[in-house]
Amino acid sequence: MIDRALIVGLGSIGKRHLRLLRAALPEADIRVLRHARCDDPIEHADGCFDRLDAACDFAPELAIIASPAPFHIPAARALAQSGAHLLVEKPISDSIEGVADLVALCKSERRELQIGYNLRFLDTLQQFRLALADGRIGRVYRVRCEIGQYLPGWRPGADYRETVSARRDLGGGVLLELSHELDMLRWVFGEVEWLSAWSGRQSALEIDVDDTAMLQMGFASGPVAQLGMDFLRRDTKRMCTAIGENGSLTWDAVAGRTTLFDPEIGSWTDLRSESPDRDFTYSAQIAALIDAIQAGTPGNIAAQGRDGLAVMQLVEAVRLSHDQDGRRIAVGNPT
Q: Please, which residues have CB within 8 angstroms of residue 40's CB and are 6 or more apart in sequence?
């Protein structure tokens, strides 16, 4: 059993992780590392640290790092070296610097390193991936994905201008905040061979980061994908459609459906439909981490450190392509 655990960061996602980790480990000593002073009791926590070295001395067996992305790598390195298995919120960092070293460190120290790409735990996305692998639409030619949501409406009651999403110094911007889609595409279609991209700010939102990104990607498995990402869309959308030789397949995360178009019958049919609560994928992700720690083997769904590195390679390729007027960039596989 896990006796000591740590949550790093106590923003909205940190509080969610703390509440769900307490439910998963009701008897554990769970503490929080935060920048603010530890004067007041924290619900669901047994204690608080305001220094990383003190948190490392606590020697947690499991640590969930939910601070802003620019601060992930130093905390993750220190905690891995002190003996903790890790769940690092997405993205693994705001740049690729230090990511490969963290992955290598966790491997050498035999520490579990999972990344918070919790969409993998949705049954509808798993069905989408399985149907493609089973050849339900034959060879896949083209993929079209859209993810968009109006940033000021993301967190009711919060000033969007002060959130992580809106601030460059905290690792915000559409490319990093919506990097779930980059992980999803790799998980479903395999490694990306090349991409070309544009990212930038189109709106009058009071932010200093990109609010829109448009990507084209070529996969080693064959298909070419288009991905549109934005902070602007008033009709929230998260959808991916694969167009194949024998039909089409769509994953609609907002509607909670995976649907298949069969040309033999000329209509769409549901393969999977679900309406999980917002905690479901986070709870499943924590359960997968605990199972992996106890079994000593990584789970087959959870995103690993290598996957977090692969996403950052794609992010860096997008930035390079944009700076070179959309030039096609070759993407190397993560090691």
A: none
Residue 155: half-sphere exposure toward Cβ, Cα within 13 Å = 12
Enter the tokens of residue 129: 């991936």
Candidates 242, 199, 249, 200; CA nearest to 219 is 242
60-92 exposure pattern, b = at least 16 Cβ within 10 A, e = fewer: bbbbbbbbbbebbbebbbebbebebbbbbbbbb
Cα gap 213→184, rounded to integer Å: 16
Residue 312, phi then psi, degrees to nearest 5: -65, -30
SS3 call for 266 = coil
**Residues of the chain whose pLDDT is less than 70?**
333-335
Distance of CA 16 to the CA centre of its chain: 15
**pLDDT confidence of residue 39:** 83
Condensed to tens digits (0 to 9), the pLDDT of residues 191-231 reads 999 999 999 999 999 999 999 999 999 999 999 999 999 99
What would the DSSP string read from start to end of 57-123?
HT--SEEEE-S-GGGHHHHHHHHHHTT-EEEEPSSS-SSSTTHHHHHHHHHHTT--EEE--GGGG-H
As given in the structure block, the two tokens for residue 314 are 């794609």
CA 94, 335, 281: angle at the middle one, nearest 5?
55
Q: Are 8 and 67 in contact (CB under 8 A)?
A: yes
For the chain, what is the radius of gyration of the CA atoms? 20
In the Cβ-directed half-sphere of 151, how many Cα atoms lie within 13 Å?
28
